[in-house]
Specification:
The chain is an alpha+beta fold and 174 residues long. The protein has 3 helices and 7 strands; from the N terminus they run αβββββββαα. β4 and β5 form a beta hairpin.
Length: 174
Amino acid sequence: MTIKPIVLLPDPVLRKKSEDFEQVDESVRKLADDMLETMYDAPGIGLAGIQIGVPRNIVVVDCSGDDEEKAPMVFFNPKILASSDERSVYEEGCLSIPDYYAEVERPASVTVDYVDYYGARQTIEADGILATCLQHEIDHLNGVLFIDYLSKLKRDMVIRKFTKLAKSRGQPAM
């Protein structure tokens, strides 16, 4: 497995819409394995393909706690079929926006249709942190970042901060 570099804000690739996979084969499973390794190394609980510069509909998550056995999950072509009216608020962070956290309100539970690691179509009903994580990562596949749920003032401050950091590293701005 290979640890991939994570794309950071303000890189415009993070705003790209990702595309579905036609099939799940060995090369696609290798991508999933590399993404899991990258997520664990970061460390994080979720990672979308676009965050490593791959504009394809793949999400990996593992919401297990530090004292629990790893529980990696791979979602190809995930789509939210339904979300609850009930809302929940979690403090979210993002591997593409390091060391920045903010409370975000989202539906408390979701039903997600996806293709699993072996190519089988599945549906999962998720609540709690898994529901939040799946919504956050599926947003990435549509070019949406968790800071988009913040006020314009807060969002603009974050973007300015990360644009300044990128310039100091010699990276191009948005």
